[in-house]
Specification:
It is a single chain. This protein starts with 11 loop residues before the first strand and ends with a helix. The mean pLDDT is 86. It has one domain: Response regulator (Rossmann fold, 3-Layer(aba) Sandwich). It contains five helices and seven strands. The chain has 144 residues and is an alpha/beta fold.
């Protein structure tokens, strides 16, 4: 596990999750890495999902560096949310979006793979989670 140095950029993470235990675990793991964490129950932070009608993201840069979500977010399935973000020109890299679920069927697994989104099945280990964070950090460093 690589922990961010004091002078390293502070990565912004959005968590869209209902389960309090998972949110608590994610907060703890992300805090250890020095990330700036925002937790939501539903995707109201995303401009093209907060509006009742479809909108393009007009932001010049990504609102977050990493997005972690459950299979279902309040009012929308995570894969539908991601598809809406893609259509809306979301700037968060698809590879830095993670769906955590204990019940992903073959159809949704294939759909996530086609979208380029990572799925982490519950139960998962912190080692697995930290390895994914490491990959996110490497991708973000290459983008700067």
């Amino acid at each position: 596990m690589t922990k961010q140095a004091a002078n390293a950029p502070k990565y912004r993470v959005f968590i869209f999750f209902e389960n309090e235990d998972i949110k608590k675990l994610l907060r703890k793991a992300l805090k250890k890495r020095g990330y700036d964490i925002s937790v939501y129950i539903k995707p109201e932070r995303c401009i093209n999902c907060a509006a009742s009608e479809f909108r393009l993201c007009l932001s010049a840069r990504a609102c977050a560096d990493i997005i972690i979500m459950g299979r279902h977010i309040v009012e929308i399935k995570s894969l539908d949310f991601i598809e809406r973000q893609i259509k809306g020109k979301c700037k968060v890299p698809l590879e830095n979006k993670l769906i955590i679920s204990g019940t992903f069927d073959e159809l949704d697994t294939a759909r996530a793979k086609a979208l380029g989104v990572r799925i982490m099945h519950m139960p998962f280990t912190l080692t697995e989670l930290y390895k994914w964070f490491d990959g996110c950090e490497e991708r973000l460093k290459k983008m700067k």
